[in-house]
Amino acid sequence: MLSIKNLHASVEDKEILKGINLEIKPGEVHAIMGPNGSGKSTLSQVLAGNEAFEVTSGEVTLNGENLLDQETEERARNGVFLAFQYPVEIPGVSNLQFLRTAVNAMRKHKGEEDMNAAEFMKLAKEVSKQVDLDPAFLKRGVNEGFSGGEKKRNEIMQALLLQPKLAILDETDSGLDIDALKVVSDGVNALRSEDRAILMVTHYQRLLNHIVPDYVHVLAGGRIIKSGGRELALELEEKGYGWLGIKDEASN
Amino acid sequence: MATTDNEVKELIKREYEHGFVTEIESETFEPGLNEDVIARLSAIKKEPEWMLEWRLKAYRRWLEMDEPDWAHVGYPKVDYNSISYYSAPKRKEDMPQSLDEVDPELLKTYEKLGIPLHEREKLAGVAVDAVFDSVSVATTFKEPLAKAGVIFCSISEAVHDYPELVKKYLGTVVPQGDNFFAALNSAVFSDGTFVYIPKGVRCPMELSTYFRINAANTGQFERTLIIAEEGSYVSYLEGCTAPMRDENQLHAAVVELVALDDAQIKYSTVQNWYPGDEEGKGGIYNFVTKRGACIGKNSKISWTQVETGSAVTWKYPSCVLRGDNSVGEFYSVALTHNFQQADTGTKMIHLGKNTTSTIISKGISAGKSSNAYRGLVKFGPGAEGARNFTQCDSLLIGDRCGAHTFPYIESKNKSAIVEHEATTSKVSDEQMFLCRQRGIDPEQAVSMIVNGFCKEVFKELPMEFAVEAGKLLEVSLEGSVG
Amino acid sequence: MKSAPMLSSAFLHPAGQSLPQPLLALRKDRASALVDMPLPTRKTENWKYSSKYLKLADDMAISLPADGTVGSSLAVPGYKVVFLNGVMIPEASEYPDLDGILIQSFSDLDDEQGQALAEQLGRTLNHDQAQFARLNGARFEDGLLVRLKPGAVLDQPLFVIHETTADASGSAYPRILVEAGANSQMTLVEEYISQGESAAFTNTVTEFTLAEGANITNIRLNMEGENVQHIGATGVVQQRSSRFESHCVGFGGPLRRHDLQVRLEGEGAECKLNGVVVTQGKQHYDNHTCIEHIAAHCNSEETYRNIAADQSHAVFNGRIHIHQDAQQSNANMNNKNLLLSNGAEIDTKPELEIYADDVKCAHGATIGQLDETSLFYLVSRGIDRRQANVLLTMAFINELMQQIPVEAVRETAQTRLNEFFEQTFQEA
């Protein structure tokens, strides 16, 4: 489904990604682990099309179609979803209005009719319950005054609403207490399906206790230096990044 | 990030929708201003002697005044002798007796503007007084209003039919010599709206006036006077449009509101005068004096405005809070684009005890425009326990525009409390990225973010206007993303 | 139109001729530009609230003599330079001869040095906003030049005591220029005091230029007497990554005006401006500040507090101007005012003028009285009402007072504040 070949990307002329290769098939869950500054977040931003990052070479395709040619919103409509590490606040724009606009943009893309307000409200309420968010949140401004945990749950709620083909979860576990982690993980597990791929980016392996990945990759210095199964994450947890000869500033 | 900016720029272009000219026969004065012109104007309107005297007095004051230059705007000097001070659609008879007698071309104009002039279009429950160039053309819903005792007519009619009320209140809120433009208006005002709500009456429907400048080289000088007697309530809306012309046109209106004990006036404006083209050519000079006097205790005056038009705006809807416990409110969205310049804000003058005021101002600048908030909050020595809260926020779209805040805060009473906050920010790249990542068009994203920014003001508008305002903003922002 | 009043020509004639030739020439040149200088009126925007306090009678034009006795014998925890009516008194001054640091009076400069100085004076200021800095330029009799070579660090604060002796009517024109080389560092304390009861006028200019990485702290303490009108201007120009910190503490007078203008010209420059003003009786005080963000990535943080009692009048006008290329600017301005009496007046005008889009700017202003709930709380704990008033008033400015980095200044100011409390809050 997702195919990344020799991807190089830089920000402000500084090269961050130095040749990433990755294949993800439908139904698979991949975890990318790595220390801070290894390029994990850059990879998710590049896949979603953030123009702050410049792709200097390489190829990315989603179901055979070139992703890098597409605008951010086209990628989204073609099924790329990014759960932000730091969800952005948009004051005055209600969550409900925001989500409905997004859902209808997707529907329009698929040639479907707009969802009316009542229908959408019903759907949104259901999904918000799924991530244990009070439906009252729907009426508040997008992420406005949300706690860290609420923001993350809001991200997962959006993924459930938009039903993407590829969900990229950027540090979705950071800043969550253990209960919230459980709720978010349940949400992600609900997303798992035969025709959907999930790419999780995380610093710690604790998330992987709740969402068991099929593959684990270690990213360091802009390259994937080791790949393996679930056991790789456990080994990393036990031995630390130093085991692979990687400096990890955050864990010092 | 630069790309996002470019996209935002692309989004702000759309042509002015109301820029058509209506082909109708009209009677227009030769350009120029002197006492004879004023006398002719007064004669055409068959005004009583006192009205002419009042005009001439204002004219003489005006001759001695200087055009104000303190606002943060720049424009070539207006030649007041190159403007025509009267233009009216020509009629075979005197005044049309019913809508059927109104020039069909004119009615089409209003249809284009989407004004519910016909009875069958009255569902919105809006009574419309339409001022076309200089004269009031038709007023609908006179009957149901008359039943409630509400007077809603053109100011010219009021001069004839209710001279005592006009004499009693005209110029009491905005004196003739208040400022240069108010003096000019007092001398040459051609028409406008008069509203009188008797004691204890809640006006049964929202009243509305649409203003339109049609003829070339004419100035529009309408005058509005609204009097709310004890315990009454009225909500009044005004909308403004003008055709696209290369020359600048002058609009110098005066609005006076009077609220007696326990009375409430809600005054909403959606102003969309022609702003000029992308190069800054043409457009309306909007030099307007709007002021409300809360004379009575517990009275309340609210100004809500959404301003997207005009080449140059100079406008400070104000409240003089004289009555104890009276309330003044100002909710404003001012959007400038291309070469538009706006210097707008409000004055809240607290004189009575426990008077309160709220100011929420949202300025949006795009293109090469300049958008300034200028406000005065003043507590007199007698303003015991008075309160003001002010929030003015500016949003910048593009790096060639300016956003300015000039608040004046003056207090002479220790128990009065004022709180003022202001922020300036831009539509952030992160917000744009989030929206686009969720599949939303950049254009739609900007409009959604800007609408969110203005939400506190929009919720103060009557429902139909709120929708119109949101759309107007969207239209005005086109091609601004940058 | 009624013609505006003009500055009397009596003010254009300086007395002392002891300056080097180039400075005398400069002064003459500046004086010629002052002919027909209109005095500010209510219609002059930046004097709107204060012009009525300005009373420059002809007898105040006379330069006050510099041969009086120095009244202050303040022991200071640092170096000291004493000026009497704008002229340096070497005998009363104590400062070191340090490597890389020049501290010198204008009149001790030779012609060549004078020429170099003449080219620098007045360049940090926008004279259209600080009109009276022009008058100082035409009238200064002496001045203090401080030059820090790159990397030089002054180990102790330098106190500059400006004393005005108002034994008879007259005026004084103190002037300071600090040129701070790259990465140099110093703290300059200016104290303005006076003796004598006649009507006098002090007109000051202080200028700072900060080269890359320089770090300057300036404390300004205005405690002149009841009959001294004071109009001062401070101009600051900052290059890359330099830091300027200012603490102004002012007590009111018949007319008190301070203009503080900061230009952030180099990327990454930063300034922090704190101010406290206290007025009582029929006193007046007007602070006008202007921070210009000219380069990108600069920060400014401004906090001013005014307290007005009795029939006094305090004015604050703060302006932040973000130029078009000053992207990524951060600017915050906060002005809070305490009105202690119904006869008093406070006017504030926090302005933002912004021409760059990628900025974070905010300002806030409040005017109010002491919080009744807090007062009640204190009183309910057995604290007497007068003491409660003092505590809460002090709390209003305490944060700013505590930030003043020189203890001796805090103490001097506190002593004067205590007098203010004594006079303002009577025993119940």
UniProtKB/TrEMBL annotation, chain A:
<dbReference type="GO" id="GO:0005524">
    <property type="term" value="F:ATP binding"/>
</dbReference>
<dbReference type="InterPro" id="IPR003439">
    <property type="entry name" value="ABC_transporter-like_ATP-bd"/>
</dbReference>
<dbReference type="InterPro" id="IPR010230">
    <property type="entry name" value="FeS-cluster_ATPase_SufC"/>
</dbReference>
<feature type="domain" description="ABC transporter">
    <location>
        <begin position="2"/>
        <end position="246"/>
    </location>
</feature>
<dbReference type="Pfam" id="PF00005">
    <property type="entry name" value="ABC_tran"/>
</dbReference>
<keyword id="KW-0547">Nucleotide-binding</keyword>
<protein>
    <submittedName>
        <fullName>Fe-S cluster assembly ATPase SufC</fullName>
    </submittedName>
</protein>
<dbReference type="InterPro" id="IPR027417">
    <property type="entry name" value="P-loop_NTPase"/>
</dbReference>
<comment type="similarity">
    <text>Belongs to the ABC transporter superfamily. Ycf16 family.</text>
</comment>
<dbReference type="GO" id="GO:0016887">
    <property type="term" value="F:ATP hydrolysis activity"/>
</dbReference>
<dbReference type="InterPro" id="IPR003593">
    <property type="entry name" value="AAA+_ATPase"/>
</dbReference>
<keyword id="KW-0067">ATP-binding</keyword>
UniProtKB/TrEMBL annotation, chain B:
<dbReference type="InterPro" id="IPR055346">
    <property type="entry name" value="Fe-S_cluster_assembly_SufBD"/>
</dbReference>
<dbReference type="Pfam" id="PF01458">
    <property type="entry name" value="SUFBD_core"/>
</dbReference>
<dbReference type="InterPro" id="IPR037284">
    <property type="entry name" value="SUF_FeS_clus_asmbl_SufBD_sf"/>
</dbReference>
<dbReference type="InterPro" id="IPR045595">
    <property type="entry name" value="SufBD_N"/>
</dbReference>
<feature type="domain" description="SUF system FeS cluster assembly SufBD N-terminal">
    <location>
        <begin position="146"/>
        <end position="203"/>
    </location>
</feature>
<feature type="domain" description="SUF system FeS cluster assembly SufBD core">
    <location>
        <begin position="211"/>
        <end position="453"/>
    </location>
</feature>
<dbReference type="Pfam" id="PF19295">
    <property type="entry name" value="SufBD_N"/>
</dbReference>
<protein>
    <submittedName>
        <fullName>Fe-S cluster assembly protein SufB</fullName>
    </submittedName>
</protein>
<dbReference type="GO" id="GO:0016226">
    <property type="term" value="P:iron-sulfur cluster assembly"/>
</dbReference>
<dbReference type="InterPro" id="IPR000825">
    <property type="entry name" value="SUF_FeS_clus_asmbl_SufBD_core"/>
</dbReference>
<dbReference type="InterPro" id="IPR010231">
    <property type="entry name" value="SUF_FeS_clus_asmbl_SufB"/>
</dbReference>
<comment type="similarity">
    <text>Belongs to the iron-sulfur cluster assembly SufBD family.</text>
</comment>
Automatic annotation (TrEMBL), chain C:
<dbReference type="InterPro" id="IPR037284">
    <property type="entry name" value="SUF_FeS_clus_asmbl_SufBD_sf"/>
</dbReference>
<dbReference type="Pfam" id="PF01458">
    <property type="entry name" value="SUFBD_core"/>
</dbReference>
<feature type="domain" description="SUF system FeS cluster assembly SufBD core">
    <location>
        <begin position="168"/>
        <end position="396"/>
    </location>
</feature>
<dbReference type="InterPro" id="IPR000825">
    <property type="entry name" value="SUF_FeS_clus_asmbl_SufBD_core"/>
</dbReference>
<dbReference type="InterPro" id="IPR055346">
    <property type="entry name" value="Fe-S_cluster_assembly_SufBD"/>
</dbReference>
<protein>
    <submittedName>
        <fullName>Fe-S cluster assembly protein SufD</fullName>
    </submittedName>
</protein>
<dbReference type="InterPro" id="IPR011542">
    <property type="entry name" value="SUF_FeS_clus_asmbl_SufD"/>
</dbReference>
<dbReference type="GO" id="GO:0016226">
    <property type="term" value="P:iron-sulfur cluster assembly"/>
</dbReference>
